[in-house]
Amino acid sequence: MQRGIPCMIFRGGTSKGLYLLEKDLPPPGDERDAVLLRLMGSPDARQIDGLGGAVSVTSKVAILGPSERDDADINYTFAQVSVDKPVVSYAGNCGNISSGVGPFAIESGLVKPKSPTTLVRIYNTNTKKILIEDIQTPDRQVNYEGDCEIPGVPGSAAPIKVLVLDPAGSVCGKLLPTGNARDKLDIPGFGSLSVSIVDAANPLVFALAGELGLSGKELPGEMDSNPELLDLLERIRGKAAQVLGLIEKPEDSPWKSPGVPKMTLVAPPAEYTTLSGNLISEDKIDLLGRMMSMQKTHPTYAMTGAMCTAAAALIPGSIVHGIKRPSADPARLRIAHPGGILEAGVDYTESAGIVSVQSVYGYRTARLLAKGTAYY
Length: 376
Known about the structure:
Helix content is 17%, strand content 36%. The chain is α+β, with helices and mostly antiparallel strands. It has an 18-stranded mixed β-sheet that branches. A hairpin with a 2-residue loop joins β18 and β19. The longest helix is centred in the middle third of the chain and has 17 residues, at 227-243. The radius of gyration is 20 Å and the shape is globular. 51% of the residues are buried.
């Protein structure tokens, strides 16, 4: 017999996912994971028997409930549902899916709207961090129409500022989990590789595209059609996950820590062509970035990844700091990804060369796509 669960489907930033109320799901554990896998149709490369879209950025779930914290209105848990494996990962958060959390909280009645805007305070259970979103609610209803455009999404919509307070150590406990701005990793079959591991909003492991024989201008199709490259990038990510204590063996990374740290390649600013064929001039960007998502190339760039990249750009000695445009503005670091340019900002202080990050932020859009009952 089929079972139903109330749900909404939102496009959040450049991702899309199911938004569910915690009260409608089993408690955290195997039973809940089984429900999420069935809802998405995983494991199956096409997710043909579920609501997933056959790629990592459309196989995501947001789970919300009321919060008892004084500094938050709601609790929000992010779940990354693997497409081709029976795996649900709760490690880290998704900034794009987060942008739909505020609207969903209002649409579902968890937060009472005000006019003309509603401030939604969100406690993310994955990272134990507070997110603040400013939602346009004229006439006490969520407004989705506006002139904010983000690369990777057709058209425009109302802007949503997503701000993460005290973002350092979201998973690993501190901004530089190893204590170093740059580390050397011994990668089997490759050798020694210089990386920077930074944890702000989400942990990322940064490597220079040039050290891997890449330009940083590659598009997802080019990278994903190169199994040797994908294998190498996962070996690097797996080694970083081991160094962080997330797994015991690097080869366990696709199963036991598939989402964090996020593998990210960076390169100095240069002219490049986007997925849509637009030519972006060098003077419009501060660095080139290519990010991996669930062992495939991210079609754009994760919002929390952009926030972490903006924080990493401030750290003397880090790989990102070394290749960014020297005149880059910390309040709007311009990251060039396959879909276009994503901006992220940082509020910080610096003393004796040590950076302290107060908050990171970026602007996204979201849209309610469907409301009803999902069956599994």
